[in-house]
UniProtKB/TrEMBL annotation:
Family annotation (Pfam families): DctM
Keywords of the record: Cell inner membrane, Cell membrane, Membrane, Transmembrane, Transmembrane helix, Transport
Residues that span the membrane, as ranges: 6-36, 57-77
Keyword GTP-binding set for record: no
The protein's name in its UniProt record: Membrane protein
Keyword hit for Membrane: yes
Topological type in the membrane: Multi-pass membrane protein
Lineage of producing organism: Bacteria, Pseudomonadati, Pseudomonadota, Gammaproteobacteria, Enterobacterales
Length: 86
């Protein structure tokens, strides 16, 4: 294997381990380490394109629609208007 392919993997795991050791929350450590490895593995224009496409595809799911409806149901139940509705 060429070092060119191993370098982004080393950066991915290395930056993740360093951020966890410093005390960065896991969600931010995962996001930032993957961002660093993508920026190293690809040219800047392609990296920005890949990141924006992955973010758009990640938000384009019908399962994410359940979250605001659960929040709405919780607000309705919290106000006391739900006994008449159920």
């Amino acid at each position: 294997m060429d070092f060119e392919y191993i370098y982004p993997i080393i950066v991915l795991f290395g930056s993740f381990a360093i951020m966890l050791a410093v005390g960065v929350p896991i969600t931010f450590a995962i996001g930032l380490s993957s961002l660093f490895s993508i920026l190293i593995a690809l040219p800047p224009d392609a990296a920005i394109s890949v990141i924006s496409q992955k973010m758009t595809v990640g938000l384009d799911g019908f399962t994410l629609l359940a979250i605001p409806f659960f929040v709405l149901a919780g607000n309705i139940m919290n106000t006391g208007e739900s006994p008449g509705a159920w």
